[in-house]
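Weekly structure sync, notes
Attendees: PL (lead), two postdocs, one rotation student
Agenda item 3: pending single-chain targets
PL asked that the sequence for the first pending target be pasted directly into the notes so everyone works from the same version. It is reproduced below exactly as submitted, 505 residues in total.
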Amino acid sequence: MTIRLRLTLWFSGILAAALIVLCVAIYFFVNMNTYADTKTQLRDQADSYDIVKYENGLNQIDLNIKRNSPFYEKDFYVQLVNYKEGVIKTSGELQINGIKFPIPEAKTNPDYGYKKAVLNTNAGEVAFLIYQKPISNNTDGTLIGLLQVGTVVASEENYLAGLRVILILSSLICLIIAFTVGLFMARKALQPIERVVHATEKIHSGSDLSVRIPIEGPKDEIGHLVYTLNIMLSRIEMAYNGLDESYKAQRRFVSDASHELRTPLTTIRGNIELLQRMWSKTLEPDEAGDIVLALDSQRYELSNEAMQDIAAEARRMSTLVNDLLALARADAGYEMEKTTQPMLPIVEEVGRRAGLLPRNAEWRIGDLTALDGYQVHGNADYLQQLLFIFIENAFKYTPSGWIEMSATRRENQLGIIIKDTGIGMNPKEVPHIFDRFYRADESRGKTVGTGLGLSIAKWIIDEHRGSIEVTTMEEEGSTFVIWLPIDFSPQPASIIIEGTDRIED
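Predicted structure, written out during the meeting:
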């Protein structure tokens, strides 16, 4: 049985009990008021008769009635019972209609007062209301007779019967309406729960965590439940999407790393096999029968070229492994140690060392005075690595022209600008350049690299709570501006003490 049906049945049962109590109270109230006047008239009519007793011998009493009050508009029927003589006297109306009131036995001590009876008359069965008044002996108080005064109450009985039918039918109709409306209201009230069930079923069947339960109606308990469930679904979706993105990034990382490592390993393996084939034929016997080393110039050149390839690929693999280690630390939540660092000496050192790197374009160091006197909260080694990543990237993609490093300041931030006149890139590619293994040259053959440098740079910038601006255009060069927050905390003063003298307070 559903909750909706149970709620409706409970509501209908309570309503039925209330209607029964109400209908019974109404019926008894109307019944009492309907017969109140009739009972008063019957009692007054019975009291208006004088009982005349005539004693005829021993224990012989003759009873007669004498009426002293005027007639009421209502017709009354009178019957006098003489228990001593066993005689019953009736009024003329009873004789005409063939009516005889039921007579209780004297020894049973009948319940005197009002009683209802359905009597057979010439016109059929008719309902009567009868008032019974006992007649006692004045000397010893024994019961000698009974005065019965009755009247027809057919109209009252019909009225009450109609009232019973109306109450019963109206109660049934009310119950049916209440059951139907209650079923509808229960369905309306529980409709948000049905939406919750449908949404969860949709999520379960289709694994679509973006589904939300629509919030409709007042903010009652069910509305609060729906709101809480939507928040829970949002958090589950965020966690699921995060795990899904991590899983996709891991798969992409493994695929790209395998691709990057496969190329140098293939080169190394090929060169090793070449060297093995070459040097296996260089040992030849001379005229005296001794084994001597025969090495011609062609084999020497090939061997030297193979060893250079091996060394280059080994350096590339070493760089790749170092980059992968840095990214693994970033993914593991590694927190670098940071202290207050003056920015100008770091940038000047990077500029000096960058001039020693191999390149095809001119290296320029622009105006760095904006950094003078300012410091940042960071790690000097990682800051140098950050700048070298962008400088080497500029060297790589600038076959001719110039690369310049300068500085600027904006409010509470220091900016290091690295500008080149290289090949640039499509502005649409800018959001992806910090993705791991992403290369602007899709063929991956134009320039040498792993595609991890900018990903590491982005991690270093995030660790220093900085940001980066990129401006680029194809065949027009690129400009990278690295923004780092200024650290305004005071530096500890340096005190130099010469000699062995000591100053005491």
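Discussion points:
- Residues 221-279 form the longest helix (59 residues).
- DSSP finds eight helices and 16 strands in the chain.
Action: rotation student to compare against the earlier draft before next sync.
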